[in-house]
Design brief:
By secondary structure, the chain is an alpha+beta fold. Helix content is 44%, strand content 26%. The longest helix is centred in the middle third of the chain and has 16 residues. It holds the Pfam family Thiamine_BP.
């Protein structure tokens, strides 16, 4: 499964990069395949391991912010691995053709 999620601290002002970095650090240290862009961090793995990473990423932000917003989107597709790469490669192949 692939989960794309965004953790936003609320009540800490406009500059939230250092708080978001706490969440991304948890994801990167998990060892699961992941990508971060301007809006979301995506992580790939089995349900329990991915959801544990999301939970810990939220907790890292929650430890420093009075309120946290979580947006989460999941692609549950049994048997598919390396979806983070293969989905993008498919789109790029269609763009090139």
């Amino acid at each position: 499964m692939i989960v794309a999620f965004s953790v936003t601290p609320l009540g800490v002002g406009e500059d939230v990069g250092e708080y978001v970095a706490d969440a991304v650090r948890v994801v990167r240290e998990s060892g699961l395949p992941n990508r971060t862009d301007a809006m979301f961090t995506s992580v790939e793995g089995e349900w329990d391991e991915v959801m544990d990473v999301v939970r810990r990423a939220v907790a890292a932000v929650e430890a420093r912010a009075p309120r946290v917003s979580l947006v989460l989107k999941a692609d549950l597709r049994p048997g598919v691995t390396d979806g983070l790469t293969s989905k993008v490669e498919t789109v790029e192949r269609h763009l090139a053709g």
